[in-house]
Amino acid sequence: MLLKVIYILVILIVLVLSLTVLANSMTKPLGRDEQMYCTGGVLLAQGKMIYRDFSYVAQMPYHPLLYAALYKLLNTSHYLLTGRLLSVVCDILVMVCIVGIYRYVFRPFEISGVLFGLAGAILYVFNPSVDYANGFAWNNDVIILCVAVCFWLFISTDFKRQSKYWRVAGIGALLTLATCMRITTALVQLLFFIFLLVKGGESIKQKFKTILPFLIASAVVLIWPIWLIVQAPRAFILDVFLIQILNSEWLHKIGLVHNKFTLIYNSLTEPGYLALIVIAVYLCVVVFLQRRRLAISDKADMLLAALLPLAFFVIALGLPRIWRQHLAAPVPFLIIGAAYPLLYLRKLVHKTGLGRHFKIAAVLAALSIFIAVAFYPVVLYRIPLLLRPQSWTAIELHKISEDIAEKTKDPKLILTLAPLYALEGGCDIYPEFSAGSFIYRVANFMTDSDRAVTHSVGPKTLRELLEKTPPSAVILGVEMEFLEEGLFEAVVEPDRQKWEKKEYENGPIVYFKR
User: Fold this and answer.
1) Using one digit for the tens of pLDDT, what is the confidence trace for 249-281?
2) Half-sphere exposure of 239 (CA within 13 A, CB side)
3) d(Cα 280, Cα 266) in Å, to the nearest integer?
4) b/e for 149-188, b at 16 or more Cβ within 10 A?
5) Which of 49, 119, 261, 402 is deepest in the core (most CB within 10 A)?
6) Which residues contact 378 (CB under 8 A, 6 or more apart)?
7) What CA–CA distance (Å, rounded) separates 417 from 474?
8) Residue 352: per-residue pLDDT
9) What was the pLDDT predicted at 258?
10) Using an 8 Å Cβ cutoff, are 346 and 116 in contact?
11) DSSP 409
C-alpha cells in the first residue's frame, strides 16, 4: 500500500516538473543558435544538402535531420515551436531516466530508490544551469537523453545472456547519433566503448564478440554523415572547424567571451549546483573511508557513473570558449552518479545496522531539494504562463512571421540575420544567411574560395550578392546593431522612399519594398 502511495506521489510530482519544463521552454527569449538549428532542418526538408548547399556551423548533421523529419511528418511551419517541444520531451524523458535508473539500482530497496530518484529529478529541474540550457531548439537536450538512456541500458544489461547484443547495438547507435549531433560527444562514446570491453567477457574473443554489435551499429549510423562529408569535404571542414575558430577569435576581439574560471566558479557556487557538489564530495569521502565494509559488486557500473560527469566537465573545459549551457551537461550525471554510493550505504544499514552515513546522505538530499527550490523558485512561477499560449515565444514569432509574409511582395525573398522570421511565414531566405550571423560576422576573414565553398557572404561582399538578387524585405532589430548596419546601408539607405518600415512589438523591425 505504501509503495502505491509513493508511486502516485512520484507521478504527480513528475507531472508538475513536466509543466515547469514546458513553461521554461515556451517563455525563453529567442536564441541566436536556434536560428541556425531550425533553419538547417527547414532547408533539409526542402531537399537541400547540408554543407554542400548551405552552411551549418560547428555542428554535425543529425540534429537538423531530426528537425526536417518532424517538419515533414507534422506538415508544419511552426519550426521553432516544434524544435522546442522536442527539447521539452527529451527533458521530461531525462527525468524519467533519473527515476528509472535509481529504481533499478536500488532493486533490493525499491522505496529508497524511488524516493532518491524523485529527489534527483527535482534537483535536475531546479538546477540554474540546467534551467538556463534546457528548452531551446538546439541539440543539448536530445544528446543528454541519448547518453542517459545508454547508461540505463548499460547497467541493466546481463552480459551473460544473448539479449546483450541488441542492447550493445542500441548503445552504439544512440551514442553515434549523439556524436553526429555534437562531435565532442565522441569522448563519452569512447568511454562507453572501454567499459563495454571491460564487461564484455573474460577472453579477448568474448570481448570482441560483445563489442561487435556496438561497432556495426555505429558504422550504420555513420553512413549518412560520411556520405555528406564525401559530397562536400572542404565545406564540412570549413563549417565545423575553421568558422568555429574564426568565431571564437571574433568574440574574443569584441570582448563577448567568459573567463573560464570565473564562469565555472559562478555556476558551481550557485546554491542548486553547490548542493550537488557537496553531496558528491560527501559520498566520495564516505565510500572511500568505508570501502572495507562495503561489498561493492558493480564496480564497473559505479566507475562509469562517476566518470560520466567528469567527461562532460572535460568537454566543457576543452572547448575554445565556454558558455553557461556547457556546465548543464554534467548535472544529470552527477545526480545519477550518486545512486551507487547511496545504494552501498543503504546496504551497509541492512547488513550491519550502521545507518549514520546513510541518514546524513538522506538529510543532505532533503536539504539540497529545499535549497534548490527556495533559491530558484522562478521555475514554479512560470507555470501560470502556460495558460497564455499567445504570449509564448514561438507562437509570437510565428504570428509575426505570417504578418511579414503577407506584407512582403513577390518573390518574397528576405534579407535577414534571423531567418526564422522569414521561413515560418513561408518566405525565402538567402542560403548565405542560413546560419544567421555566425558566418556573416567572420566571412571577411575568409578567402574568396572559402566563401564560395561555404555559400557565405560578409559585409564586404554583401552588395555584390544583393545586386544579383535584390530582396523584397529586410528584417532587422534582432542582432547586434553594428552587424545589421551593413544590411540597412546596402538595401534601405540608398533610397528610403522605396521602403515601408514597420516595428513589431517584442519583435523585429522590417522594411518592406513598396
Assistant:
1) 999 888 888 888 899 999 999 999 999 999 999
2) 29
3) 18
4) bbbbbbbebebeeeebbebbbbbbbbbbbbbbbbebbbeb
5) 119
6) 131
7) 9
8) 72
9) 81
10) no
11) P
